[in-house]
Write a structure and sequence with these properties.
This protein has 508 residues and is of the alpha+beta class. 38% of the residues lie in helices and 19% in strands. Bound molecules: adenosine-5'-diphosphate (ADP) and magnesium ion. The site of adenosine-5'-diphosphate has 16 residues, from strand 2, strand 10 and strand 11.
């Protein structure tokens, strides 16, 4: 038995079968639409949702005599993405024709890159966890390549009973195909990989990562093997368009392949589709071979060449990426790995956090952003861009707690008011008399009243250990949560001690 994998198989990722364990192997090809105003080889607009066939130039429609001209911006975007994937940038790459017929492909071929892609090998790090001990595991996933290619148009079959329609708006839009190595070993790793990839391109501004608009689509290659053995035959699940579906598709596909092999069958290498309603994959076609496409260099385009200085310039202008941000938040703002990971998943969340954390305690701000803000956004199905509570408002709420003006319990109520009604938190607590009561004499009066009206409980002093907490709770309740809990605590304990002593000296 030879272990050909750089990752020694890992017990906790193995899947039990009828006769021993299996390991799943996953590699992903992701099509990411480049953020650019115009298409890869034409000046037509890339606006999403435009009227059908309104963003189509003569080049996109493959009119005779037209010629493709490379869009410089798309090349820059691909280089930036390659840099974000820690990958080698190839100063010379070649566009080739991938030949096939389909009604949504007017040229009869797709211009793509094959033997010489613009970006070579790279890697990204995914973080899996936390496990039950709160630990995270960082895993490196290899990138095989990134190449530039044209998108196809879209066939529409549900507009007419006997005819199909085709919309060429998408044809010729620039895509980056990002191919991973077969380095993933579970559905969780595959989901983490795509999440990380999406986060990186969004930080870079090279792809908007919107999977539901089709701006990012994943083909997932899945095979299984006995731990330590060589790779098995893979099936490719095409165009999965959400991260949740990726997990479901892999789980289903793994079970399907295990059942076949355990029943003495063999896996056909094929292309499959995932049906989200049924949660199943089904066969679409047997796998095409590379030679079927008769790739050859496109005679209309020169090899793509640029200088190292262009790469260096783009590299110097790269924004801070999630991994670096995470390290900085841990080192400088005192965040835990978990908190930092959550906050950097989206650039907009990290930006929001940074506005508030400036001059405030990072850990406190992270708690509010993660538990309260993200929790509420999740519940309301809103994105961070749509948040009703601005960083300035949340910052002001946090300051009010720090100054002792409100308790953290009241702060939660204040957050809800700001969420629902907007407004300046400082003015709201004034208008609604939500300020914390810190006046010792005022609190003492209330403590005395509560003691006087609860003689049964007073009798339990010294017998029931929780009685002090009960009195603290009553006092806070009597002030609608506004009494400063620290002061209430001290006063209640002092009074109970006095009462206890006097009760015992009476008996004695
Ligand atoms: P193609 O375009 O024919 O699908 P590639 O050779 O570029 O071909 O591979 C596509 C993807 O399949 C890559 O992401 C790679 O990591 C993955 N892959 C290769 N072998 C396996 C395997 N045995 N199991 C799972 N994934 C695999
Ligand atoms: Mg493929």
């Amino acid at each position: 038995m030879t272990i050909i994998d750089k990752r020694i198989f890992d017990q906790k990722r193995l899947i039990p079968g009828v006769s021993g364990y299996w390991e799943v192997v996953i590699g992903m090809e992701v099509h990411a639409q480049i953020t650019s105003k115009s298409k890869l080889f034409s000046g037509a607009s890339t606006t999403f949702g435009a009227q059908a066939n309104s963003n189509v130039s003569l080049v996109d429609a493959a009119m005779p005599g037209t010629l493709p001209v490379i869009n410089r911006e798309c090349v820059h975007q691909a280089i930036k993405t390659g840099l974000g994937l820690n990958a080698r940038i190839n100063l010379k790459s070649v566009f080739e024709r991938k030949n096939y017929f389909y009604p949504d492909l007017p040229q009869g071929y797709q211009i793509s890159q094959f033997q010489k892609p613009i970006v070579g090998e790279g890697k990204i790090t995914i973080s899996i966890g936390p496990d039950k001990d709160g630990q995270f595991e960082d895993i490196e996933i290899g990138i095989e390549r990134l190449h530039l290619e044209q998108d196809a148009g879209k066939s529409i079959h549900d507009q007419h009973s006997s005819m199909s329609h085709v919309d060429f708006n998408r044809s010729g839009i620039a895509l980056m195909e990002i191919v991973s190595k077969p380095d993933m070993r579970s559905a969780d790793e595959a989901k983490a990989y795509l999440t990380k990839l999406r986060s990186i391109v969004r930080y870079l501004g090279t792809c908007n990562g919107n999977m539901d608009e089709g701006s990012m689509r994943a083909d997932i290659n899945v095979s299984i093997r006995r731990p330590g053995e060589s790779f098995g035959t893979r099936c490719e699940i095409k165009n999965v368009n959400s991260i949740r579906f990726i997990g479901q598709a892999i789980d289903y596909e793994t079970r399907r392949q295990i059942a076949i092999l355990e029943n003495g069958g063999i896996i056909d290498q094929e292309t499959r589709l995932f049906n989200a309603e049924q949660g199943k994959t089904y066969s679409m076609r047997s796998k095409e071979e590379v030679h079927d496409y008769r790739y050859f260099p496109d005679p209309d385009l020169l090899p793509l060449e640029f200088e190292q200085s262009l790469v260096d310039g783009l590299k110097n202008a790269l924004p801070e990426l999630p991994d670096d941000k995470k390290k900085r938040f841990i080192a400088e703002d005192g965040l835990t790995i978990y908190d930092a990971s959550v906050i950097v998943t989206e650039k907009a969340i990290a930006d929001y956090f940074e506005v508030i954390a400036d001059g405030r305690d990072g850990k406190t701000v992270a708690n509010w952003v993660i538990n309260d803000l993200l929790g509420a956004l999740n519940k309301a199905k809103l994105s961070i861009e749509e948040t009703p509570v601005s960083p300035e408002q949340l910052g002001s709420i946090i300051d009010l707690i720090k100054q002792g003006t409100i308790s953290s319990k009241i702060a939660k109520e204040l957050f809800e008011i700001v969420w629902n009604e907007g407004g300046n938190p400082v003015e709201i607590i004034d208008q609604r008399e939500m300020k914390q009561i810190t006046d010792i004499n005022a609190i003492e009066k209330i403590v005395d009243e509560i003691l006087a009206t609860n003689q049964n409980e007073v009798a339990q002093i010294g017998e029931k250990p929780t009685i002090a907490d009960w009195f603290v709770g009553q006092v806070i309740k009597a002030t609608n949560g506004k009494a400063n809990p620290r002061i209430v605590n001290v006063l209640v304990k002092k009074k109970l001690n006095l009462l206890y002593d006097s009760m015992h000296s009476n008996i004695g």
